[in-house]
Design goal:
The chain has one domain: 3-Layer(aba) Sandwich (Rossmann fold), CATH 3.40.50. It has a six-stranded parallel beta sheet with strand order 2-1-3-4-5-10, sandwiched between helices. Strands 6-9 form a two-stranded parallel ribbon. A two-stranded parallel sheet has the order 7-12. It is of the alpha/beta class. It has ten helices and twelve strands. Helices cover about 40% and strands about 15% of the residues.
């Protein structure tokens, strides 16, 4: 049995499509911050593999409601690890590039020392630490700048691509930050996970598109693909908030490449895969 927690998330829906015999469970069915919910769901399904896609990842709200951020992203992982051990389940968790401070000029690898700058990154790093400390069998994938055809709940249903296209309809000029990233289509991430989640154990693995760009350049690529010609300006703060964000969050899939397991494409090809997968919009995700 393969259990997917956080069943309304982008990642959970794609995993449920790709991985056969999986069951996704929404927050309503299992709130991972409640020990009684975790016990109930493990007792019911007795899973061999547990994907934890539940997270609190609105970076602005994480700063404001830091207790919730640490409750969901950190301390809940102790209870998940506990019940994964009871049922001899492998706990598969998803972390973030925001565990790094962005001061490096070359891609971060798995063994680089994490130093998060904001509450979101700090809470995700502590969650990693709890899993490494408490879970007998685990796998942690670090992701970066993901997008998909499934609505982002904390971004009013829009991913970055859709947001750029929507803004372009309203204005002849866009202001986009120039932070360096590896934008990654969730469909590609799930293909990589499908290939590796059973064979890699007790590791932190970087799983992003190869190569890098900036939000500014990515926005220009999106506009070009859609034949939209408007002015795009580089700015320091796209979200107009006071969140400290790392300037450089490019990850290198060092473990996957070293072990000849990497199937992640370059970021340009990942964007093309997103475009090709338009049919997913018509599915009942």
């Amino acid at each position: 049995m393969i259990l997917i927690l956080g069943g309304n998330s982008q990642l959970a829906n794609y995993l449920n499509i790709k991985i056969k015999k999986s069951i996704k469970v929404s927050r309503k069915e299992c709130d991972i911050t409640k020990l009684s919910d975790i016990k109930k769901i493990f007792d019911k399904y007795k899973p061999k593999y547990v994907f934890n896609c539940a997270a609190y990842h609105n970076t602005i709200l994480c700063e404001r409601f830091f207790n919730k951020s640490f409750t969901v992203n950190s301390f809940a992982l102790k209870n998940l690890s506990k019940y994964a051990n009871i049922y001899n389940s492998k706990l598969i968790h998803f972390s973030t590039d925001y565990v790094f401070d962005g001061k490096k000029n070359t891609p971060y690898i798995e063994t680089d020392y994490p130093r998060p700058l904001n509450i979101y990154g700090q809470s995700k790093l502590l969650g990693e630490n709890f899993i490494e400390q408490d879970a007998n069998k685990y796998l942690i994938y670090r992701l970066s700048s993901i997008y998909s055809h499934y609505p982002c709940r904390h971004k009013k249903g829009l991913n970055f691509i859709e947001k750029i296209l929507k803004l372009a309809k309203k204005s002849n000029e866009l202001n986009i930050n120039n932070l360096e990233i590896s934008p990654t289509y969730v469909g590609d991430i799930v293909n990589q996970i499908h290939k590796t989640f059973k064979i890699i154990e007790n590791q932190i693995v970087h799983c992003t598109s190869l190569g890098s760009t900036t939000w500014y350049q990515f926005a220009k690529s999106i506009l070009k693909t859609n034949n939209i010609s408007i002015k795009v300006n580089k700015v320091k703060n796209f979200d107009k908030d006071l969140i400290i964000r790392p300037k450089y969050t490019v990850l290198r899939n060092s473990y996957l490449i070293k072990n000849k397991l990497n199937v992640m494409p370059r970021w340009e090809d990942s964007y093309n895969n997103y475009i090709k997968d338009q049919y997913l919009k018509k599915t009942n995700l």
